[in-house]
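Let's practice the habit of predicting before peeking. Look at the sequence and jot down your guess about where helices and strands might fall. Then scroll down.
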Amino acid sequence: MTTTLPTPTAAAAAIPAPAPAGHGVAAGRSAAAAHRTAGKNGPEVSRALRWTAKAAALTLLPSGLWRIAIAFGWDSGFAAGDPLHHSNFPGNTSFYLIGLSIFAELLGLLALGLVQSWGEVLPRWVPWLGGRRIPTAAAVVPASLGALAVTLITVTGAFAWNDAGAMGSPEAPDGTKYWIMTACYAPLLLWGPLLAVVTVAYYLRRRRNG
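Done guessing? Here is the structure:
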């Protein structure tokens, strides 16, 4: 039985060529740099999802501007005797309407955190907790409950919009001003569903990234 030994040339060809000096270090540095760049630019989120989050935040803007206009004395069409009649503004109630509008818009802007880096890692300027990773449940649970509550409230409100205790009241606006108010509040119907879409995407992304 004859055994054929490999020639020195064949044996050398079978040995993989060593990587150039510093190649592994450079690759590690490149990966680290890419990771830092991704962290600065936020999580990898599609443009459509980012626009969905922005749309969710903007659904509160028309109704907020409508209330602020009333706070500065705009005649919204409510009859005399109604708290929103223009003769009551500007006044003490103006602060309430403006504050309510700002607070509502800030709630809407929280949807942006579901597509931004500050929704996954607390900013450095946050006292004591800055730089800490936000647990997925800490964002998903409140956002999910919020989306559900907002959807129920807005849909229920839409069905009762023309009831006697709402826009069907004799003191409520009619004509053009009725439609202005309706157009300002109609976008709120999209707030809950849009927030739900962004919340699900956030959960899936965090789960995928461990």
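How did you do? The chain has one domain: 45-208.
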